[in-house]
Specification:
Layout: E1 6-9, E2 12-15, H1 20-32, H2 35-45, H3 50-63, H4 73-93
Antiparallel strand pairs: 1-2
Helix pairs in contact: 2-3, 2-4, 3-4
């Protein structure tokens, strides 16, 4: 099976259903391409905990990968915004 969901049969290639692993690989590729943009977003807002924000954003994206829209960047920014607010509330309580 080719990585794009195509199934090889003899000399012919037909497009078939992607396996769960193929879908996960594709999702991971789509998400990882936006890592730097999300990190810069977090660093501008909460420099001390930017890495934690990014880790939570991508953990959330992975857990919800079946519902993350394409393109994912606006969704990742919205998720980062929520996590930044959560970090600020947590810091204010300390």
């Amino acid at each position: 099976m080719a990585g794009n969901g195509a199934v090889q049969s003899g000399n012919r290639v037909s497009v078939g259903e992607m396996t769960a692993g193929d879908r996960d690989d594709e999702c991971l590729r789509r998400l990882v391409t936006h890592h730097l943009a999300v990190l810069k977003y977090a660093r501008r807002r909460v420099p001390d905990v930017a890495d934690e924000v990014v880790a939570e954003v991508f953990a959330t994206a992975w857990r919800q990968r079946s519902t993350v829209p394409d393109p994912p960047l606006p969704w990742l920014y919205a998720t980062a915004r929520h996590e930044v607010l959560h970090q600020r509330r947590s810091h204010a309580r300390r």
